[in-house]
Amino acid sequence: xxxxxxxxxxxxxxxxxxxxxxxxxxxxxxxxxxxxxxxxxxxxxxxxxxxxxxxxxxxxxxxxxxxxxxxxxxxxxxxxxxxxxxxxxxxxxxxxxxxxxxxxxxxxxxxxxxxxxxxxxxxxxxxxxxxxxxxxxxxxxxxxxxxxxxxxxxxxxxxxxxxxxxxxxxxxxxxxxxxxxxxxxxxxxxxxxxxxxxxxxxxxxxxxxxxxxxxxxxxxxxxxxxxxxxxxxxxxxxxxxxxxxxxxxxxxxxxxxxxxxxxxxxxxxxxxxxxxxxxxxxxxxxxxxxxxxxxxxxxxxxxxxxxxxxxxxxxxxxxxxxxxxxxxxxxx
Amino acid sequence: xxxxxxxxxxxxxxxxxxxxxxxxxxxxxxxxxxxxxxxxxxxxxxxxxxxxxxxxxxxxxxxxxxxxxxxxxxxxxxxxxxxxxxxxxxxxxxxxxxxxxxxxxxxxxxxxxxxxxxxxxxxxxxxxxxxxxxxxxxxxxxxxxxxxxxxxxxxxxxxxxxxxxxxxxxxxxxxxxxxxxxxxxxxxxxxxxxxxxxxxxxxxxxxxxxxxxxxxxxxxxxxxxxxxxxxxxxxxxxxxxxxxxxxxxxxxxxxxxxxxxxxxxxxxxxx
Lengths: 332, 271
What we know:
The structure holds two protein chains of two kinds.
Chain A: H1 5-8, H2 10-30, H3 38-45, H4 53-85, H5 97-111, H6 119-141, H7 146-170, H8 175-183, H9 191-210, H10 212-218, H11 222-227, H12 232-254, H13 260-272, H14 276-300, H15 309-331
Helix pairs in contact in A: 2-3, 2-4, 2-14, 4-9, 4-12, 4-13, 4-14, 5-6, 5-7, 5-8, 5-12, 6-7, 6-12, 9-12, 13-14, 14-15
Chain B: E1 3-14, E2 17-28, E3 32-36, H1 43-50, E4 58-63, E5 66-67, H2 73-77, E6 80-83, H3 95-101, H4 115-127, H5 143-156, E7 161-165, H6 173-190, E8 193-197, H7 201-207, E9 210-215, E10 218-223, H8 225-228, H9 231-238, E11 240-246, E12 253-260, H10 262-267
Parallel strand pairs in B: 3-8, 3-9, 6-7, 7-8
Antiparallel strand pairs in B: 1-2, 1-4, 4-5, 9-10, 11-12
Protein backbone atom coordinates (compact mmCIF):
# COMPACT_ATOMS: atom_id res chain seq x y z
CA UNK A 1 0.00 0.00 0.00
CA UNK A 2 1.31 3.42 -0.92
CA UNK A 3 1.61 5.72 2.03
CA UNK A 4 0.85 9.28 1.15
CA UNK A 5 3.17 12.05 2.18
CA UNK A 6 0.89 13.75 4.69
CA UNK A 7 0.39 10.57 6.71
CA UNK A 8 4.12 10.53 7.34
CA UNK A 9 3.85 14.02 8.80
CA UNK A 10 0.61 13.96 10.74
CA UNK A 11 1.55 16.88 12.98
CA UNK A 12 2.21 19.10 9.96
CA UNK A 13 -1.19 18.12 8.67
CA UNK A 14 -2.85 18.96 11.97
CA UNK A 15 -1.18 22.37 11.94
CA UNK A 16 -2.34 22.84 8.36
CA UNK A 17 -5.92 21.97 9.36
CA UNK A 18 -5.68 24.41 12.23
CA UNK A 19 -4.60 27.20 9.88
CA UNK A 20 -7.45 26.37 7.50
CA UNK A 21 -9.83 26.56 10.42
CA UNK A 22 -8.50 29.99 11.45
CA UNK A 23 -8.91 31.19 7.86
CA UNK A 24 -12.49 29.89 7.86
CA UNK A 25 -13.15 31.68 11.15
CA UNK A 26 -11.96 35.02 9.73
CA UNK A 27 -13.80 34.65 6.44
CA UNK A 28 -16.94 33.45 8.22
CA UNK A 29 -17.03 36.53 10.45
CA UNK A 30 -17.15 38.68 7.34
CA UNK A 31 -20.36 37.18 5.99
CA UNK A 32 -23.88 38.17 6.91
CA UNK A 33 -26.32 40.98 6.29
CA UNK A 34 -23.30 43.26 6.17
CA UNK A 35 -20.10 42.08 4.47
CA UNK A 36 -16.86 42.79 6.28
CA UNK A 37 -13.56 42.17 4.48
CA UNK A 38 -11.19 39.66 6.22
CA UNK A 39 -8.65 42.47 6.81
CA UNK A 40 -11.23 44.54 8.63
CA UNK A 41 -12.29 41.54 10.68
CA UNK A 42 -8.70 41.12 11.86
CA UNK A 43 -8.31 44.83 12.62
CA UNK A 44 -11.43 44.70 14.78
CA UNK A 45 -10.42 41.52 16.55
CA UNK A 46 -7.04 42.95 17.50
CA UNK A 47 -8.56 46.26 18.50
CA UNK A 48 -6.81 48.27 15.77
CA UNK A 49 -10.12 49.46 14.44
CA UNK A 50 -13.48 49.65 16.18
CA UNK A 51 -15.61 50.12 13.12
CA UNK A 52 -17.55 46.86 13.26
CA UNK A 53 -16.88 46.17 16.91
CA UNK A 54 -20.55 45.80 17.79
CA UNK A 55 -21.49 43.32 15.03
CA UNK A 56 -18.38 41.24 15.48
CA UNK A 57 -18.26 41.11 19.25
CA UNK A 58 -21.98 40.83 19.86
CA UNK A 59 -23.01 38.45 17.10
CA UNK A 60 -20.48 37.01 14.77
CA UNK A 61 -17.66 36.10 17.13
CA UNK A 62 -19.97 34.06 19.34
CA UNK A 63 -21.41 32.34 16.30
CA UNK A 64 -18.06 31.27 14.86
CA UNK A 65 -16.78 30.13 18.25
CA UNK A 66 -19.90 28.04 18.62
CA UNK A 67 -19.37 26.58 15.13
CA UNK A 68 -15.78 25.68 16.03
CA UNK A 69 -16.79 24.05 19.31
CA UNK A 70 -19.82 22.16 18.04
CA UNK A 71 -18.09 21.05 14.84
CA UNK A 72 -15.12 19.81 16.83
CA UNK A 73 -17.33 17.99 19.32
CA UNK A 74 -19.28 16.22 16.61
CA UNK A 75 -16.13 15.32 14.67
CA UNK A 76 -14.33 13.85 17.69
CA UNK A 77 -17.47 12.03 18.80
CA UNK A 78 -17.80 10.46 15.35
CA UNK A 79 -14.14 9.40 15.33
CA UNK A 80 -14.53 7.69 18.71
CA UNK A 81 -17.76 5.93 17.74
CA UNK A 82 -16.29 4.68 14.46
CA UNK A 83 -13.32 3.31 16.39
CA UNK A 84 -15.28 1.70 19.19
CA UNK A 85 -18.04 0.27 17.03
CA UNK A 86 -15.40 -0.68 14.44
CA UNK A 87 -17.63 0.50 11.67
CA UNK A 88 -16.79 3.40 9.39
CA UNK A 89 -20.48 4.23 9.10
CA UNK A 90 -20.96 4.80 12.80
CA UNK A 91 -21.66 8.36 13.92
CA UNK A 92 -23.82 10.18 16.46
CA UNK A 93 -26.62 10.25 13.85
CA UNK A 94 -26.47 6.54 13.21
CA UNK A 95 -26.63 5.41 16.82
CA UNK A 96 -29.70 7.55 17.42
CA UNK A 97 -28.22 10.23 19.68
CA UNK A 98 -29.12 13.18 17.48
CA UNK A 99 -32.59 11.74 16.86
CA UNK A 100 -33.21 11.55 20.59
CA UNK A 101 -32.16 15.17 20.96
CA UNK A 102 -34.39 16.18 18.04
CA UNK A 103 -37.44 14.46 19.46
CA UNK A 104 -37.00 16.12 22.84
CA UNK A 105 -36.47 19.52 21.22
CA UNK A 106 -39.56 19.05 19.10
CA UNK A 107 -41.67 18.22 22.13
CA UNK A 108 -40.54 21.48 23.72
CA UNK A 109 -41.05 23.59 20.60
CA UNK A 110 -44.45 22.19 19.66
CA UNK A 111 -46.09 21.43 23.00
CA UNK A 112 -44.49 23.95 25.35
CA UNK A 113 -43.72 26.93 23.10
CA UNK A 114 -43.89 29.34 26.03
CA UNK A 115 -40.97 27.98 28.06
CA UNK A 116 -37.76 30.04 28.30
CA UNK A 117 -35.24 29.52 25.50
CA UNK A 118 -32.72 27.86 27.78
CA UNK A 119 -35.02 24.86 28.23
CA UNK A 120 -34.59 23.86 24.60
CA UNK A 121 -30.89 22.84 24.71
CA UNK A 122 -31.32 21.28 28.12
CA UNK A 123 -34.18 19.08 26.99
CA UNK A 124 -32.32 18.19 23.80
CA UNK A 125 -29.38 17.06 25.90
CA UNK A 126 -31.75 15.04 28.05
CA UNK A 127 -33.22 13.45 24.92
CA UNK A 128 -29.78 12.48 23.65
CA UNK A 129 -28.90 11.16 27.09
CA UNK A 130 -32.07 9.09 27.30
CA UNK A 131 -31.34 7.40 23.97
CA UNK A 132 -27.78 6.77 25.15
CA UNK A 133 -29.00 5.18 28.37
CA UNK A 134 -31.46 2.97 26.49
CA UNK A 135 -28.71 2.05 24.05
CA UNK A 136 -26.43 0.99 26.87
CA UNK A 137 -29.19 -0.95 28.66
CA UNK A 138 -30.07 -2.91 25.53
CA UNK A 139 -26.48 -3.47 24.54
CA UNK A 140 -25.29 -4.62 27.97
CA UNK A 141 -27.49 -7.68 27.83
CA UNK A 142 -26.07 -8.62 24.46
CA UNK A 143 -22.43 -8.64 25.58
CA UNK A 144 -21.83 -5.32 23.80
CA UNK A 145 -20.80 -6.59 20.40
CA UNK A 146 -19.93 -3.64 18.14
CA UNK A 147 -22.46 -4.52 15.45
CA UNK A 148 -25.17 -4.87 18.08
CA UNK A 149 -24.53 -1.33 19.25
CA UNK A 150 -25.01 0.03 15.73
CA UNK A 151 -28.19 -1.96 15.15
CA UNK A 152 -29.74 -1.06 18.49
CA UNK A 153 -28.87 2.59 17.81
CA UNK A 154 -30.56 2.48 14.43
CA UNK A 155 -33.69 0.96 15.99
CA UNK A 156 -33.81 3.60 18.74
CA UNK A 157 -33.27 6.33 16.15
CA UNK A 158 -36.18 5.00 14.11
CA UNK A 159 -38.47 5.11 17.11
CA UNK A 160 -37.47 8.74 17.77
CA UNK A 161 -38.00 9.56 14.12
CA UNK A 162 -41.49 8.10 14.22
CA UNK A 163 -42.15 10.15 17.35
CA UNK A 164 -41.05 13.31 15.54
CA UNK A 165 -43.34 12.64 12.61
CA UNK A 166 -46.24 11.99 14.93
CA UNK A 167 -45.53 15.31 16.69
CA UNK A 168 -45.55 17.19 13.41
CA UNK A 169 -48.92 15.74 12.40
CA UNK A 170 -50.52 16.08 15.80
CA UNK A 171 -49.24 19.54 16.80
CA UNK A 172 -48.81 21.55 13.62
CA UNK A 173 -48.34 24.77 15.69
CA UNK A 174 -44.78 25.91 15.11
CA UNK A 175 -43.63 23.15 12.80
CA UNK A 176 -41.33 25.59 11.00
CA UNK A 177 -39.27 26.39 14.05
CA UNK A 178 -39.17 22.71 14.94
CA UNK A 179 -37.99 21.77 11.45
CA UNK A 180 -35.23 24.36 11.48
CA UNK A 181 -34.06 23.06 14.82
CA UNK A 182 -34.12 19.49 13.60
CA UNK A 183 -32.10 20.45 10.52
CA UNK A 184 -29.57 22.20 12.71
CA UNK A 185 -28.56 25.82 12.45
CA UNK A 186 -26.37 28.40 14.12
CA UNK A 187 -28.88 31.15 13.55
CA UNK A 188 -29.42 33.45 16.51
CA UNK A 189 -26.94 31.64 18.70
CA UNK A 190 -24.83 33.80 21.00
CA UNK A 191 -22.60 33.72 24.09
CA UNK A 192 -25.31 32.03 26.17
CA UNK A 193 -25.05 28.86 24.12
CA UNK A 194 -21.26 28.94 24.35
CA UNK A 195 -21.53 29.09 28.13
CA UNK A 196 -23.80 26.08 27.92
CA UNK A 197 -21.57 24.01 25.63
CA UNK A 198 -18.04 24.90 26.70
CA UNK A 199 -18.11 23.22 30.15
CA UNK A 200 -19.23 19.91 28.66
CA UNK A 201 -16.49 20.02 26.06
CA UNK A 202 -14.01 20.79 28.78
CA UNK A 203 -15.11 17.62 30.58
CA UNK A 204 -15.39 15.22 27.68
CA UNK A 205 -12.58 16.25 25.32
CA UNK A 206 -9.77 15.74 27.86
CA UNK A 207 -11.23 12.34 28.88
CA UNK A 208 -11.23 11.28 25.25
CA UNK A 209 -7.73 12.47 24.43
CA UNK A 210 -6.59 10.74 27.61
CA UNK A 211 -8.09 7.51 26.29
CA UNK A 212 -6.70 7.88 22.76
CA UNK A 213 -4.14 5.07 23.12
CA UNK A 214 -6.82 2.74 24.43
CA UNK A 215 -8.99 3.57 21.46
CA UNK A 216 -6.14 2.34 19.25
CA UNK A 217 -6.03 -0.84 21.28
CA UNK A 218 -9.76 -1.38 20.72
CA UNK A 219 -9.12 -1.79 17.02
CA UNK A 220 -7.35 -5.12 17.71
CA UNK A 221 -10.59 -6.81 18.73
CA UNK A 222 -12.06 -7.69 22.12
CA UNK A 223 -10.07 -10.86 22.74
CA UNK A 224 -6.72 -9.15 22.29
CA UNK A 225 -7.87 -6.13 24.30
CA UNK A 226 -8.69 -8.49 27.17
CA UNK A 227 -5.52 -10.48 26.59
CA UNK A 228 -3.44 -7.31 26.86
CA UNK A 229 -4.87 -6.63 30.28
CA UNK A 230 -7.71 -4.22 29.59
CA UNK A 231 -11.40 -4.91 29.99
CA UNK A 232 -12.96 -4.46 26.58
CA UNK A 233 -16.60 -4.19 27.66
CA UNK A 234 -15.88 -1.58 30.30
CA UNK A 235 -13.53 0.37 28.02
CA UNK A 236 -16.15 0.43 25.27
CA UNK A 237 -18.75 1.63 27.75
CA UNK A 238 -16.55 4.53 28.90
CA UNK A 239 -15.64 5.56 25.36
CA UNK A 240 -19.24 5.44 24.13
CA UNK A 241 -20.39 7.34 27.20
CA UNK A 242 -17.90 10.14 26.53
CA UNK A 243 -18.63 10.22 22.78
CA UNK A 244 -22.36 10.38 23.40
CA UNK A 245 -21.98 13.09 26.02
CA UNK A 246 -19.93 15.10 23.58
CA UNK A 247 -22.34 14.71 20.67
CA UNK A 248 -25.36 15.24 22.91
CA UNK A 249 -24.09 18.55 24.26
CA UNK A 250 -23.21 19.78 20.75
CA UNK A 251 -26.55 18.80 19.27
CA UNK A 252 -28.30 20.40 22.21
CA UNK A 253 -27.08 23.85 21.23
CA UNK A 254 -26.81 23.75 17.44
CA UNK A 255 -29.60 21.31 16.60
CA UNK A 256 -29.26 17.96 14.98
CA UNK A 257 -26.66 18.78 12.37
CA UNK A 258 -26.04 15.58 10.50
CA UNK A 259 -23.09 14.19 8.58
CA UNK A 260 -20.30 16.01 10.45
CA UNK A 261 -19.78 13.15 12.87
CA UNK A 262 -19.72 10.78 9.93
CA UNK A 263 -17.53 12.68 7.49
CA UNK A 264 -15.03 14.60 9.60
CA UNK A 265 -13.32 11.40 10.82
CA UNK A 266 -13.15 10.07 7.26
CA UNK A 267 -11.47 13.23 6.02
CA UNK A 268 -9.14 13.20 9.02
CA UNK A 269 -8.20 9.57 8.46
CA UNK A 270 -7.14 10.33 4.90
CA UNK A 271 -4.99 13.21 6.08
CA UNK A 272 -3.33 11.89 9.24
CA UNK A 273 -3.86 8.12 9.24
CA UNK A 274 -5.58 5.96 11.81
CA UNK A 275 -3.67 6.61 15.03
CA UNK A 276 -5.99 8.15 17.58
CA UNK A 277 -3.55 10.71 18.91
CA UNK A 278 -3.52 12.21 15.42
CA UNK A 279 -7.01 11.22 14.34
CA UNK A 280 -8.90 12.80 17.22
CA UNK A 281 -7.51 16.33 16.89
CA UNK A 282 -7.70 16.14 13.11
CA UNK A 283 -11.33 14.97 13.24
CA UNK A 284 -12.17 17.82 15.59
CA UNK A 285 -10.55 20.38 13.29
CA UNK A 286 -12.19 18.88 10.21
CA UNK A 287 -15.56 19.02 11.99
CA UNK A 288 -15.02 22.68 12.88
CA UNK A 289 -14.06 23.52 9.31
CA UNK A 290 -17.11 21.75 7.86
CA UNK A 291 -19.51 23.49 10.22
CA UNK A 292 -17.88 26.89 9.71
CA UNK A 293 -17.93 26.47 5.93
CA UNK A 294 -21.55 25.30 5.92
CA UNK A 295 -22.68 28.12 8.16
CA UNK A 296 -20.78 30.71 6.13
CA UNK A 297 -22.16 29.44 2.83
CA UNK A 298 -25.63 29.32 4.33
CA UNK A 299 -25.40 32.99 5.16
CA UNK A 300 -23.58 34.09 2.03
CA UNK A 301 -25.38 32.22 -0.75
CA UNK A 302 -28.58 34.22 -0.89
CA UNK A 303 -28.69 36.98 1.69
CA UNK A 304 -30.76 38.00 3.55
CA UNK A 305 -32.24 34.49 3.51
CA UNK A 306 -30.24 32.08 5.64
CA UNK A 307 -29.95 28.45 4.70
CA UNK A 308 -29.59 26.35 7.88
CA UNK A 309 -26.09 24.91 8.25
CA UNK A 310 -27.55 21.43 8.65
CA UNK A 311 -28.87 21.51 5.09
CA UNK A 312 -25.49 22.53 3.73
CA UNK A 313 -23.57 19.90 5.66
CA UNK A 314 -25.87 17.33 4.07
CA UNK A 315 -25.59 18.86 0.59
CA UNK A 316 -21.80 19.08 0.83
CA UNK A 317 -21.37 15.97 2.90
CA UNK A 318 -23.47 13.40 1.10
CA UNK A 319 -21.73 13.61 -2.30
CA UNK A 320 -18.33 13.62 -0.63
CA UNK A 321 -19.36 10.56 1.30
CA UNK A 322 -20.47 8.78 -1.86
CA UNK A 323 -17.10 9.64 -3.35
CA UNK A 324 -15.35 8.14 -0.32
CA UNK A 325 -17.38 4.96 -0.56
CA UNK A 326 -16.47 4.64 -4.21
CA UNK A 327 -12.79 5.07 -3.39
CA UNK A 328 -13.07 2.40 -0.71
CA UNK A 329 -14.73 0.02 -3.15
CA UNK A 330 -11.97 0.60 -5.67
CA UNK A 331 -9.29 -0.15 -3.08
CA UNK A 332 -10.84 -3.59 -2.44
CA UNK B 1 6.47 -32.02 35.80
CA UNK B 2 5.90 -28.48 37.02
CA UNK B 3 2.44 -27.19 36.28
CA UNK B 4 2.28 -23.71 34.81
CA UNK B 5 -1.40 -23.40 34.15
CA UNK B 6 -4.20 -25.57 35.43
CA UNK B 7 -7.95 -25.83 35.32
CA UNK B 8 -9.96 -27.39 38.12
CA UNK B 9 -13.56 -28.54 37.69
CA UNK B 10 -13.90 -25.95 34.97
CA UNK B 11 -17.39 -25.51 33.56
CA UNK B 12 -17.93 -23.10 30.69
CA UNK B 13 -21.17 -21.99 29.08
CA UNK B 14 -22.42 -19.66 26.40
CA UNK B 15 -25.76 -18.26 27.58
CA UNK B 16 -27.56 -21.40 28.71
CA UNK B 17 -25.73 -24.12 26.84
CA UNK B 18 -22.84 -25.76 28.65
CA UNK B 19 -19.84 -26.25 26.39
CA UNK B 20 -17.32 -27.61 28.85
CA UNK B 21 -18.37 -29.67 31.85
CA UNK B 22 -16.16 -29.94 34.93
CA UNK B 23 -12.82 -30.58 33.32
CA UNK B 24 -9.45 -30.78 35.02
CA UNK B 25 -6.42 -29.82 33.00
CA UNK B 26 -2.74 -29.31 33.61
CA UNK B 27 -0.35 -27.50 31.33
CA UNK B 28 3.30 -28.49 31.96
CA UNK B 29 5.80 -25.68 32.28
CA UNK B 30 8.38 -25.17 29.55
CA UNK B 31 6.65 -27.54 27.12
CA UNK B 32 4.57 -27.26 23.99
CA UNK B 33 1.03 -28.43 24.73
CA UNK B 34 -1.42 -28.95 21.89
CA UNK B 35 -5.20 -29.28 22.15
CA UNK B 36 -6.84 -31.49 19.55
CA UNK B 37 -10.44 -32.44 18.90
CA UNK B 38 -13.15 -32.26 16.28
CA UNK B 39 -14.86 -29.00 15.31
CA UNK B 40 -17.12 -27.65 18.02
CA UNK B 41 -15.71 -29.86 20.78
CA UNK B 42 -14.85 -26.82 22.88
CA UNK B 43 -11.09 -26.48 22.30
CA UNK B 44 -11.23 -22.74 21.62
CA UNK B 45 -13.53 -22.20 24.57
CA UNK B 46 -11.07 -23.96 26.86
CA UNK B 47 -8.21 -21.87 25.52
CA UNK B 48 -10.18 -18.66 26.10
CA UNK B 49 -10.93 -19.68 29.66
CA UNK B 50 -7.27 -20.56 30.27
CA UNK B 51 -6.44 -17.08 28.98
CA UNK B 52 -9.04 -15.59 31.41
CA UNK B 53 -10.84 -13.82 28.55
CA UNK B 54 -13.85 -16.04 29.16
CA UNK B 55 -15.16 -16.22 32.72
CA UNK B 56 -15.93 -19.72 33.98
CA UNK B 57 -19.43 -20.69 35.02
CA UNK B 58 -17.99 -22.88 37.76
CA UNK B 59 -14.51 -24.01 38.71
CA UNK B 60 -11.24 -22.13 38.35
CA UNK B 61 -8.14 -21.61 36.32
CA UNK B 62 -4.85 -21.37 38.17
CA UNK B 63 -1.76 -19.59 36.88
CA UNK B 64 1.37 -20.36 38.91
CA UNK B 65 -0.92 -21.71 41.61
CA UNK B 66 -3.07 -18.60 41.93
CA UNK B 67 -6.65 -18.23 40.78
CA UNK B 68 -6.56 -16.35 37.51
CA UNK B 69 -9.90 -14.57 37.58
CA UNK B 70 -9.10 -13.03 40.94
CA UNK B 71 -5.89 -11.36 39.78
CA UNK B 72 -5.74 -7.99 38.00
CA UNK B 73 -5.98 -8.55 34.26
CA UNK B 74 -2.94 -6.38 33.66
CA UNK B 75 -0.78 -8.53 35.92
CA UNK B 76 -1.89 -11.65 34.04
CA UNK B 77 -1.02 -9.92 30.77
CA UNK B 78 2.58 -9.66 31.96
CA UNK B 79 2.72 -13.44 32.44
CA UNK B 80 0.55 -14.75 29.62
CA UNK B 81 -0.06 -13.71 26.02
CA UNK B 82 -2.99 -14.90 23.96
CA UNK B 83 -3.23 -14.83 20.20
CA UNK B 84 -6.81 -15.41 19.00
CA UNK B 85 -7.63 -17.19 15.77
CA UNK B 86 -7.13 -14.96 12.70
CA UNK B 87 -6.98 -11.59 14.49
CA UNK B 88 -7.96 -8.49 12.56
CA UNK B 89 -5.42 -5.73 12.14
CA UNK B 90 -6.47 -2.12 11.81
CA UNK B 91 -5.77 -0.61 8.41
CA UNK B 92 -2.36 0.90 7.78
CA UNK B 93 -0.73 -0.52 10.91
CA UNK B 94 2.96 -1.40 10.55
CA UNK B 95 4.58 -4.52 12.01
CA UNK B 96 6.53 -2.42 14.47
CA UNK B 97 3.46 -0.49 15.61
CA UNK B 98 1.64 -3.78 16.11
CA UNK B 99 4.55 -5.03 18.18
CA UNK B 100 4.35 -2.03 20.48
CA UNK B 101 0.76 -2.96 21.33
CA UNK B 102 2.32 -5.98 23.03
CA UNK B 103 3.96 -3.58 25.46
CA UNK B 104 0.60 -2.25 26.60
CA UNK B 105 0.41 -4.20 29.87
CA UNK B 106 3.78 -2.74 30.90
CA UNK B 107 2.79 0.82 30.11
CA UNK B 108 1.55 3.27 32.65
CA UNK B 109 -1.21 5.60 31.56
CA UNK B 110 0.13 8.43 29.36
CA UNK B 111 3.76 7.38 29.78
CA UNK B 112 6.04 7.08 26.79
CA UNK B 113 7.73 3.88 25.71
CA UNK B 114 10.76 3.02 27.81
CA UNK B 115 14.09 1.61 26.68
CA UNK B 116 12.89 -1.78 27.86
CA UNK B 117 9.89 -1.45 25.52
CA UNK B 118 12.15 -0.68 22.57
CA UNK B 119 14.51 -3.54 23.45
CA UNK B 120 11.67 -6.05 23.79
CA UNK B 121 10.16 -5.00 20.46
CA UNK B 122 13.56 -5.28 18.77
CA UNK B 123 14.08 -8.69 20.32
CA UNK B 124 10.59 -9.89 19.32
CA UNK B 125 11.10 -8.75 15.73
CA UNK B 126 14.44 -10.48 15.65
CA UNK B 127 13.16 -13.72 17.14
CA UNK B 128 10.41 -13.91 14.53
CA UNK B 129 12.68 -12.81 11.69
CA UNK B 130 10.54 -9.75 11.03
CA UNK B 131 13.22 -7.07 11.39
CA UNK B 132 13.40 -6.30 7.70
CA UNK B 133 9.59 -5.97 7.50
CA UNK B 134 9.19 -3.82 10.59
CA UNK B 135 8.06 -0.76 8.67
CA UNK B 136 5.74 -2.64 6.32
CA UNK B 137 2.02 -2.45 6.87
CA UNK B 138 0.37 -5.74 7.78
CA UNK B 139 -1.81 -5.78 4.67
CA UNK B 140 1.35 -5.74 2.52
CA UNK B 141 2.62 -9.01 4.02
CA UNK B 142 2.11 -12.65 3.06
CA UNK B 143 -0.06 -14.81 5.31
CA UNK B 144 2.92 -16.43 6.98
CA UNK B 145 4.68 -13.13 7.57
CA UNK B 146 1.51 -11.64 8.98
CA UNK B 147 1.11 -14.50 11.43
CA UNK B 148 4.76 -14.04 12.42
CA UNK B 149 4.05 -10.35 12.97
CA UNK B 150 1.19 -11.22 15.32
CA UNK B 151 3.40 -13.70 17.15
CA UNK B 152 6.06 -11.00 17.49
CA UNK B 153 3.43 -8.83 19.18
CA UNK B 154 2.70 -11.59 21.66
CA UNK B 155 6.45 -12.05 22.23
CA UNK B 156 6.95 -8.34 22.85
CA UNK B 157 4.53 -8.79 25.70
CA UNK B 158 7.46 -10.54 27.38
CA UNK B 159 5.47 -13.40 28.88
CA UNK B 160 6.64 -16.90 29.80
CA UNK B 161 3.39 -18.33 28.56
CA UNK B 162 2.01 -18.11 25.04
CA UNK B 163 -1.49 -19.27 24.08
CA UNK B 164 -2.38 -19.55 20.39
CA UNK B 165 -5.69 -20.49 18.82
CA UNK B 166 -4.96 -22.26 15.54
CA UNK B 167 -1.91 -20.23 14.55
CA UNK B 168 -1.71 -22.09 11.23
CA UNK B 169 -5.25 -21.52 9.89
CA UNK B 170 -5.49 -20.13 6.37
CA UNK B 171 -1.79 -20.63 5.78
CA UNK B 172 -0.34 -22.80 3.05
CA UNK B 173 1.81 -25.75 4.11
CA UNK B 174 5.18 -23.99 3.93
CA UNK B 175 3.86 -21.09 6.00
CA UNK B 176 2.36 -23.54 8.50
CA UNK B 177 5.74 -25.13 9.03
CA UNK B 178 7.34 -21.67 9.19
CA UNK B 179 5.06 -20.74 12.09
CA UNK B 180 5.39 -24.09 13.88
CA UNK B 181 9.18 -24.08 13.60
CA UNK B 182 9.22 -20.56 15.02
CA UNK B 183 7.10 -21.66 17.99
CA UNK B 184 9.33 -24.69 18.55
CA UNK B 185 12.38 -22.45 18.50
CA UNK B 186 10.75 -20.08 21.01
CA UNK B 187 10.10 -23.03 23.25
CA UNK B 188 13.50 -24.69 22.93
CA UNK B 189 15.74 -21.63 22.85
CA UNK B 190 13.79 -19.12 24.89
CA UNK B 191 12.00 -21.44 27.30
CA UNK B 192 8.52 -20.25 26.49
CA UNK B 193 5.63 -22.45 27.57
CA UNK B 194 3.30 -22.78 24.59
CA UNK B 195 -0.32 -23.91 24.49
CA UNK B 196 -1.99 -24.07 21.12
CA UNK B 197 -4.80 -25.56 19.13
CA UNK B 198 -3.87 -27.37 15.94
CA UNK B 199 -6.09 -29.02 13.37
CA UNK B 200 -3.48 -31.11 11.60
CA UNK B 201 -3.04 -34.20 13.79
CA UNK B 202 0.35 -35.19 12.44
CA UNK B 203 1.68 -31.67 12.99
CA UNK B 204 0.26 -31.86 16.52
CA UNK B 205 2.14 -35.09 17.15
CA UNK B 206 5.31 -33.76 15.61
CA UNK B 207 5.46 -30.49 17.55
CA UNK B 208 3.71 -31.27 20.83
CA UNK B 209 5.42 -32.45 23.98
CA UNK B 210 2.03 -32.86 25.58
CA UNK B 211 -1.20 -33.60 23.74
CA UNK B 212 -4.66 -33.03 25.11
CA UNK B 213 -7.60 -34.51 23.22
CA UNK B 214 -11.05 -33.11 23.82
CA UNK B 215 -14.31 -34.96 23.22
CA UNK B 216 -17.71 -33.36 23.83
CA UNK B 217 -16.46 -30.86 26.38
CA UNK B 218 -14.39 -33.39 28.34
CA UNK B 219 -10.71 -34.29 28.30
CA UNK B 220 -10.56 -37.63 26.48
CA UNK B 221 -6.86 -38.26 26.98
CA UNK B 222 -3.69 -36.35 27.72
CA UNK B 223 0.01 -37.12 27.63
CA UNK B 224 2.95 -37.51 25.28
CA UNK B 225 1.92 -38.01 21.64
CA UNK B 226 3.05 -41.62 21.73
CA UNK B 227 0.64 -42.32 24.61
CA UNK B 228 -2.26 -40.33 23.18
CA UNK B 229 -2.13 -41.52 19.58
CA UNK B 230 -4.20 -44.71 19.76
CA UNK B 231 -6.70 -46.19 17.31
CA UNK B 232 -9.39 -45.67 19.97
CA UNK B 233 -8.66 -41.94 20.09
CA UNK B 234 -9.21 -41.55 16.39
CA UNK B 235 -12.32 -43.70 16.48
CA UNK B 236 -13.92 -41.99 19.48
CA UNK B 237 -12.82 -38.39 19.02
CA UNK B 238 -12.70 -38.01 15.26
CA UNK B 239 -14.75 -40.95 13.98
CA UNK B 240 -11.82 -42.16 11.91
CA UNK B 241 -10.27 -45.53 11.32
CA UNK B 242 -6.56 -44.83 11.41
CA UNK B 243 -3.42 -46.73 10.79
CA UNK B 244 -0.82 -45.52 13.29
CA UNK B 245 2.86 -45.71 12.48
CA UNK B 246 6.11 -44.15 13.51
CA UNK B 247 7.56 -41.31 11.54
CA UNK B 248 10.74 -42.52 9.86
CA UNK B 249 12.30 -39.14 10.62
CA UNK B 250 11.78 -38.51 14.34
CA UNK B 251 9.96 -41.68 15.52
CA UNK B 252 6.91 -39.61 16.52
CA UNK B 253 3.57 -41.32 15.95
CA UNK B 254 1.73 -40.52 12.75
CA UNK B 255 -1.76 -41.37 11.69
CA UNK B 256 -2.98 -42.42 8.29
CA UNK B 257 -6.78 -42.26 8.08
CA UNK B 258 -8.20 -45.24 6.24
CA UNK B 259 -11.91 -44.51 6.53
CA UNK B 260 -14.80 -43.23 8.60
CA UNK B 261 -16.33 -45.08 11.51
CA UNK B 262 -18.73 -44.62 14.40
CA UNK B 263 -19.86 -41.05 14.92
CA UNK B 264 -18.60 -39.87 11.56
CA UNK B 265 -20.79 -42.45 9.80
CA UNK B 266 -23.79 -41.38 11.84
CA UNK B 267 -23.15 -37.80 10.77
CA UNK B 268 -22.88 -38.69 7.10
CA UNK B 269 -26.02 -40.81 7.33
CA UNK B 270 -24.28 -44.10 6.58
CA UNK B 271 -25.51 -45.78 9.74
